[in-house]
TrEMBL record, chain B:
Database matches in InterPro entries: WD40/YVTN_repeat-like_dom_sf (IPR015943), WD40_PAC1 (IPR020472), WD40_repeat_dom_sf (IPR036322), WD40_rpt (IPR001680)
Gene3D superfamilies tied to this protein: YVTN repeat-like/Quinoprotein amine dehydrogenase
Keywords attached to this entry: Repeat, WD repeat
Pfam families: WD40
PROSITE patterns the UniProt entry points to: WD_REPEATS_2 (PS50082), WD_REPEATS_REGION (PS50294)
Gene: LOC105058374
SMART domains, A to Z: WD40 (SM00320)
Per-repeat ranges for WD: 23-56, 66-107, 108-149, 247-281
Protein name: Protein RAE1 isoform X1
Amino acid sequence: MNRRKEPCRNFQRGSCQYGDRCKFLHVAPQQSKPSTFGFGAQSALHLAQNTQQQKPNPFGFGVSGNSQLKGASNFGARNQSSSRPFENKWTRSSSIASTTSTSPQQNDSLPQAAIHKCTDPELCKRQIVEDFKNEAPLWKLTCYGHCKNGPCDIIGDISFEELRAAAYEDARRGLSLQSIVERERNLLNSKLIEFDNLLRNPYVLRNPNSSGTSLFAVTNSNASLIGAQTNAPPSFSSFSQLGVATNVGSTIRTSVPGTPPSAVFNQPSSFQSNGQTSGGFAMKFGTSGIGSQLPTQPSGSSLGPNSSHFNNSVRAAGSQHFSFPAVSPQFSGTSNASPNILDGPQVAPTTAHQASVMEKQNVSPDDSIWLKEEWAIGEIPVEAPPERFC
Amino acid sequence: MANLSGLNTGVANPNPNKSFEVLPAPSDSVSSLSFSPKANYLVATSWDNQVRCWEILPGSSQPKASISHDFPVLCSTWKDDGTTVFSGGCDKLVKMWPLMSGGQPTQVAAHDAPIKEMAWIQQMNLLVTGSWDKTLRYWDTRQAQPVHTQQLPERCYALTVLYPLMVVGTADRHLIIYNLQSPQTEFKRITSPLKYQTRCLAAFPDQQGFLVGSIEGRVGVHHLDDSQQSKNFTFKCHREGNEIYSVNSLNFHPVHHTFATAGSDGAFNFWDKDSKQRLKAMARCPYPIPCSTFNNDGSIFAYALSIHFGILNRLLHLLLLLRFAMTGARVLKIIIQLQQRRISIFIAHWKVRLKGSLV
């Protein structure tokens, strides 16, 4: 509670010993951030300026006040430190969280590189393994990205509210509790399978994967997506439930199983898992340095119009441009698997079977590369053809 | 202490913090809470399709009014003059309810999918709504058509507005930052610094950045300005042993600029991002806290407990929860945590409560 309106001279210099108790105004010595982005010019704000703690205290006031705040007994200590509000404790291990792990340090070490090139697959794999072991959240229906600030490795988020809204919706339509639970269980399982696949073949990273297989994929994408329509009804029972859930609010409330738009909509998540595994194979022959974004873009955009054709009835066409560029790295990589996955689920609708089927299908991308008449740059396999082709 | 309505008596005390309970409780989970910017009126929206308003007086609460939607209501916000409440949810529309004048709700906005988040932008006199149809729409309440529709890469999961900063969190970890002075263009689009689904957002009061909370029990502090990127960090919270709960709500204290996090583990904590400390950890309630909020001057912190959230992977619970959710026979409480002092001098408040003179 600063009674005087004058700024505190000591504070300006960075060392006011009264801290919060000081009777002068603690205004930040340096005024606001560059207007390059026009946010919050300090002068424009009418906030309590006392707590503008942008400048770390150069005098580094006593780390003694850093006691953990786990209980009332520490409040005394906290009071001490409160009079020196500028201790910027850069050592993460103090105070904030209860446990330590390597992740906080990693946050430090990975500078805010917007694009993390994942140049070291081993490191990333270890990161993923560790994440799944130590940091697996209780809510499983989530996307995941192994590097912070990097794009997602697993897409297909479902939030609490979406799941719940879908359940309520189903209940309202008269679906029994049993079937709702069944649907949710399937969702959960398929998600868990995706995570497992990522764990086993983490190094998919869209670029090597897609460059190796994208050209092949594009030509088939038309066929595959059209195929989706016809294959949808018997097979996508569990996935299309997801479609209903995530398309909550879709104006098309036809019967639940396999409406084509929702089937296509689902495919990113199911494809992703397949793509992950096939990507593992692609690694073997696609990595000859063609890791640039360039090959992926054309395939991504060519895929866009295809899918948008199906999704038009559900979403405004405009929205496609946004979802696809964001998803295209994965999408193009996974689309090669699309003909395969459509054949797979027809065999059996249960997810357990699907998992095994997906495994089986993964072999075919391998073969397809050998069956091509011509190889484009980036597709030329590095290793010798397997026996069956010789 | 207010009488705690009949729960399974075998369960631990639902109110270990001796917070004051607001009655009558909604019959289904609370989805959002918001205080009026002018007075101590609390509005709660819940999955039982109702929007309820209470007046919060020191030591008691008085139910004032309620309206209903046809579908669960997911979000609410007050207009800046404290007279009108907007609420929206699974019925894909927003109702404007001039409750102070006793008026009837009218529809002012619509989407193609449930509306997850909304906020009133005082400086523009517009309501912005984010929905699972991957759009953000700006509404002038007098017109039926949105003033502007903004496409999002994915479904909107979280929103925070502090003029001119607006941050939208979507599925697949996108975070899109807008400068509301030119709302048609994204100021920046980044991927969340957290590795899992984004759950909640809160903008810094000085608009230098924002907090992002995810389902993995972690909160990220992110600054917008590139020169301040070194100050970004993330910290873990709401974890218990190996169990990692989601952070459901982030709220800044309007005066002290410390913030509170509330999670599915039933705990809520107060933190100071500048000194990187946890200021106070409250006792864990046995139920998840889906939402929380401060009142306009920060003297009251309201949080809701509700059965349901976040434990869905345990299928047994799933069964139970769903059944209860559908029959609506569930116990939920809105609990008010009164804070009489600034958070840094919490000890005084705590002692007062020990002596039993809770107000």
